[in-house]
Amino acid sequence: MSDNILIKLEKIKKLYKMGETELRAVDGISLNIKEGEFLGIMGASGSGKSTLMNIIGILDSPTEGKYFLKGKDVSFLDDIQASKIRNKEIGFVFQTFNLIKGLTAFENVETPLIYAGIPKKRRKEIVEYYLDKMGIADRMKHKPNQLSGGQRQRVAIARALVNEPSIILADEPTGNLDSKTTEEILNLFHKIHEEGKTIVLVTHETEIGKETERTIVLKDGKIIKEYKN
């Protein structure tokens, strides 16, 4: 693992006003994530995991604090700037797969490449490579409703990888899968990590958290514990 800091969070806060009350979803978190690290973010429901994930994924901005990605301050970007950086630097994998129902597996994986302006012939090569890597090249013409949960998540991981992002953010990626498929998907994440990719995995399950190199535990928007696995 490199000593290069890929992500640096400095005293990040996310506050929500609820009438007279102020909810501190993230309350002063400072965190470094190194290039090539496999980090787990754990905590019960309402601990601030999803809010922190959204800030790291530049889906949301902090109320206070600084966020540096590859040395660049990305704390407060407009929608267009945020969208450009997300498409280039961040691959997302969600519990609910977030595949487009009307598109085939091939077309779902191809979508980020279209946004990135990659020519059609090259897109085909890249999509076929990643679907093959995920072990589902034979399912590329199938739509999501013709695929099992594990196959859908493999398509989602392929889609997250095609733009060769700096980081993969996985939000409860095994939450909708049975134990055998969970093991298969975690093995894929390990393989991706061994190839040098930085992965941040959000989970509320202790067993899943143990799969990462380092785990931080959140409670009430704060890091209350950190340990190496």
TrEMBL record:
GO terms for cellular component: membrane protein complex; plasma membrane. The keyword Protease does not apply. It comes from the Bacteria. Residues 7-229 form the ABC transporter domain. PANTHER family: ABC TRANSPORTER ABCH.1, IMPORT ATP-BINDING PROTEIN. One of its GO terms (molecular function) is ATP binding. Belongs to the ABC transporter superfamily. Macrolide exporter (TC 3.A.1.122) family. This is ABC transport system ATP-binding protein. InterPro entries: AAA+_ATPase, ABC_transporter-like_ATP-bd, ABC_transporter-like_CS, ABC_transpr_LolD-like, MacB-like_ATP-bd, P-loop_NTPase. PROSITE patterns: ABC_TRANSPORTER_1, ABC_TRANSPORTER_2. Keywords: ATP-binding, Nucleotide-binding, Transport. SMART domains: AAA.
